[in-house]
Amino acid sequence: MAQTQQEGSTAVPVWDIPVRLFHWMLVLLIAFSWLSNKMDWMTWHMYSGYTILTLVLFRILWGFVGSTHARFSDFIYGPRALIGYIKTLPSRTAAKFAGHNPLGGISVVLILLCVLAQAGTGLFANDDIINEGPLFKHVSKELSDRLTTIHKYNFNVLLALIVVHVGAVLYYLIYKSENLIKPMFTGRKLLPAGVAAAPMRSLGIAIVLLAFCAAGVWFLVNY
After folding, report:
1. Strand (E) positions, 20-169?
2. Is residue 12 a contact partner of residue 191, using CB atoms and an 8 Å limit?
3. Other CB atoms within 10 A of residue 72 CB
4. Residue 133's CB: how many other CB atoms inside 10 A?
5. How many CB atoms lie within 10 A of CB 11?
6. Model pLDDT for residues 88-118, shown as the tens digit of each residue
7. With 80 as the cut, is the pLDDT of residue 205 above it?
8. Would the pTM count as exceeding 0.90?
9. Which pLDDT value is given to residue 8?
């Protein structure tokens, strides 16, 4: 539930290491995927795509078994909570959520789905010259062309979601005086005094889960 801002806020551990590493690695890899496509570094572009797919699959699984605020159940809210939160947006006082706020939760889910679609369609894509995704051979040329088109235009959708996401972070920073960027580095978020830290899942579990996802993607693109 949201809490109004109070004096005597304290830094509370919120984001675990897997969530923070996922976030910044995804930022770098999306930027590199764009650059490698522009520079026609297609081998590196595909490797970047495989890595992104691995990370997104991991994040989806971590959304069910990870630390409290990494779980989808923590930041997917019902219509009433969403409407109530939207009503607070004009206020210069930020409504306090330990994890993602209702709109932030929607943003996370949409970006994950969009990135998953981008990486997934890339596996079947072709450029009508020499480059083909590793799963191109398993579908018809017609279907590959359709998925290639989706791969091309879905990136624009992803860029739009990223712009909205960054805009929301800046809105909170400038208008509501709440820094949402720093916690994604430190893992700690300023919350009203008395808010207890949620339990964090073992880093070992995340490593095993990531290895499982990496093995799955490797098998997918090689067989």
Report:
1. none
2. yes
3. 16
4. 23
5. 14
6. 999 998 888 999 999 999 999 999 999 999 9
7. yes
8. yes
9. 61
Question: Counting Cβ atoms within 10 Å, is residue 56 exposed (0-12), middle (13-18) or buried (19+)?
Answer: buried
Contact of 126 with 148, CB cutoff 8 Å: yes
Average pLDDT over all residues of the chain: 93
The pLDDT of residue 218:
97
Closest CA to 61 of 221, 191, 207, 223: 207
Please identify, in words, the CATH class of the domain defined by 10-222: mainly alpha
Confidence bin at 3 (pLDDT 50/70/90): very low
Q: Write out the H or E segment, with its range, that includes residue 191.
A: strand 188-191
Instruction: Tell me the domain boundaries of the chain.
Output: 10-222
Which amino acid, residue 133?
G
Distances (CA, A) of 210 to 29, 56, 214: 16, 10, 6
Cα gap 142→217, rounded to integer Å? 24
42-53 b/e with 16+ CB inside 10 Å = b? eeebbbbbbbbb
Tell the residue number behind the tokens 């889960």, with chain if given. 209
Please compute the mean of the pLDDT values over residues 190-218 and round it to a whole number.
Answer: 91
CA separation, residue 184 to residues 13, 88, 180 (Å):
11, 23, 7
Tokens 């939760």 locate to 105
Inform me whether the pLDDT recorded for 215 exceeds 80: yes
According to DSSP, the β-strands at 10-13 and 188-191 are antiparallel
The pair of structure tokens assigned to 198 is 């949620």
